Amino acid sequence: MTNFKIVTIIGARPQFIKAAVISRLLSQRAQEILVHTGQHYDDNLSEIFFNELEIPEPNYNLGVGSGSHGRQTGEMLTKIEEILLHEQPDLVLVYGDTNSTLAGALAATKLNIRLAHIEAGLRSFNRQMPEEVNRVVTDHLADLLFCPSHEARKNLFNEGITKNVYIVGDVMAESLMFAAEK
User: Fold this and answer.
1) DSSP state of 93
2) Which is nearest to 76 in space by CA: 104, 52, 50?
3) What kind and span of H or E run contains 20?
4) Is pLDDT of 176 > 70?
5) Spatial separation of the C-alpha atoms in residues 140 and 109, rounded to whole Å
6) What letter would DSSP give residue 58?
7) Which of 81, 104, 124, 176 can bridge 94 by disulfide, Cβ–Cβ 3.0-4.6 Å?
8) pLDDT tens across 105-151, in order?
9) Are 114 and 92 in contact (CB under 8 A)?
10) Kind and range of the H or E run holding 97
11) How far apart are CA 1 and CA 26, in angstroms?
């Protein structure tokens, strides 16, 4: 294993499923510190996914729970910043479009830590959706953008984001194949 340290921020069911695939790969190449924000926190929304998908136990569980977008994101931002200052990672990895994604992206960027976004470039083109705001802001902050499709890459290019953009495929499809094999 290398000395390269990655802090991965997850907090909602779709992120748990995606992290199951990526964390297995990262464990062979880097030290991964897993941070569960607690955005989805009951056993049916959280722990069962960790057990069934063989995701490593989180190193940190912030226990944020539900609340308004501002309160939830603000509490996550404060706690993630503390972890990043303590862990001093080389990279922060975020997934998708949740408040956990946005909080992780903001904390990393404000601390000048490189940020990678999995599922970059996805768009609904509806700024009334909080998730759309989270996606757009995260993509504009990210240093590495991993797109599931050519369409997602095109969306980024149309917004002027052209560097360090990679088409890597759909991590949810990879998760489905893993689950089917089990």
Assistant:
1) E
2) 104
3) helix 13-26
4) no
5) 11
6) P
7) 104
8) 999 999 999 999 999 999 999 999 999 999 999 999 999 999 999 99
9) yes
10) none
11) 10
